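[Discussion] Sanity-checking designs against the backbone

I'm trying to build intuition for which residues belong where. Below is a structure token string of 374 positions. I'd appreciate it if someone posts a full sequence so I can compare it with mine line by line.
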């Protein structure tokens, strides 16, 4: 009986040893966790040119709506859509028969009034002679003089109606107010237009305005900067909708006097020459301002993450361990942030891939160069 118990005990020990040995062997062969390979950059201070782009609304220097000043049928159209016109060039002719008739009536009224004046003056002269001979009283002379003044006032009134009739007639013949390009013409020959109807639009495209909005913070930075570090307002570049850069440089001419209550920004107006008439009224683009910056630290925006309204980066130490570091910024230039505090030259930060990182993680850094750290 004792021999049988000893045999069972040996068997159990053998099984346990086998299981433990297998587990130990299995654990020794388990793959180790690989360290993340991430690009990193070395922070540096540098002197550079900073570029800031703003969405711009492009408008012609002159863009005027041509509207009918009097109702009537369109008899003639002397221009076509999209064509260049000169100042004073005929554009439209409205039917003027009614207005010519009104002019004739007004002219006749002037003639009639002038005849009344002549009659009243002759009567005054006759009364003066009778008064001199004491045939009638002097009051009759005063009455005759009053009739002359009444007749003369009728002449002035008639002439006013005549001038008005001439002006109304001139409204039927519409000319270009300046050199420009004709826009769409919605009405055709034979169309009846009312007073105020839009006949077309003319744009002077020798130059264009580019309007862009600047935040209040950027505006204050601009105003406080010394002349050497202010944006170069006479060397603006314009990027068009297709991504190409416009050949002509622009210049800021003026800014608005108030901030927009809704956006908290103020509008600047830049002027660009347009010799080839390529830029059109209503186009869009991006205006880029350039300014000099000395001893600045820039970090890519993709390297920064936000927690509770605070900005952080991952700094890599000598053991390749990453640590969250809070930074403060003082502005943004396109894809880069200007660091005010939190980083020093020589610090190494994770360039991208920060979404997969945790504080105190170990990585395999891969040093790269960017536009602001090479």
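Best answer:
Here's mine. Compare freely.
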């Amino acid at each position: 009986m004792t021999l049988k118990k000893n045999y069972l005990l040996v068997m159990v020990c053998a099984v346990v040893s086998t299981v433990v040995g297998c587990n130990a062997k299995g654990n020794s062969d388990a793959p180790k966790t690989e360290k993340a390979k991430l690009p990193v950059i070395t922070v540096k201070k540098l002197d550079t040119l900073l570029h800031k782009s703003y969405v711009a609304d492009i408008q012609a220097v002159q863009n005027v709506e041509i509207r009918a000043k009097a109702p009537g049928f369109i008899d003639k159209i002397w221009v076509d859509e999209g064509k260049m016109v000169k100042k004073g060039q005929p554009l439209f002719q409205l039917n003027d028969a009614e207005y010519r008739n009104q002019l004739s009536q007004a002219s006749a009224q002037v003639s009639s009034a002038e005849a009344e004046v002549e009659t009243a003056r002759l009567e005054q002269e006759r009364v003066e002679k009778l008064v001199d001979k004491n045939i009638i009283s002097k009051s009759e002379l005063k009455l005759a003089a009053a009739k002359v003044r009444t007749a003369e006032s009728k002449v002035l009134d008639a002439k006013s109606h005549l001038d008005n009739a001439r002006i109304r007639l001139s409204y039927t013949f519409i000319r270009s107010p300046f050199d420009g390009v004709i826009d769409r013409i919605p009405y055709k020959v034979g169309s009846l237009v009312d007073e105020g109807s839009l006949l077309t639009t003319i744009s002077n495209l020798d130059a264009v305005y580019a309007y862009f909005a600047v935040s209040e913070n950027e505006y204050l930075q601009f105003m406080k900067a010394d002349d050497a570090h202010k944006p170069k307002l006479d060397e603006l570049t314009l990027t068009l909708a297709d991504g190409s850069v416009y050949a002509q440089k622009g210049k800021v001419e003026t800014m608005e006097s108030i901030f927009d209550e809704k956006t908290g920004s103020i509008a600047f107006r830049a002027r660009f020459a347009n010799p080839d008439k390529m830029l059109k009224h209503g186009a869009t683009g991006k205006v880029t301002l350039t300014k000099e910056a000395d001893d600045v630290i820039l970090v890519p925006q993709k390297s920064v993450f936000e927690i509770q309204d605070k900005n952080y980066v991952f700094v890599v130490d000598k053991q390749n361990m990453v640590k969250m570091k809070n930074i403060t910024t003082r502005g943004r230039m396109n894809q880069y942030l200007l660091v005010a505090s939190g980083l020093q030259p020589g610090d190494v930060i994770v360039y991208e891939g920060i979404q997969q990182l945790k504080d105190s993680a170990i990585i395999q850094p891969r040093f790269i160069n960017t536009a602001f750290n090479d």
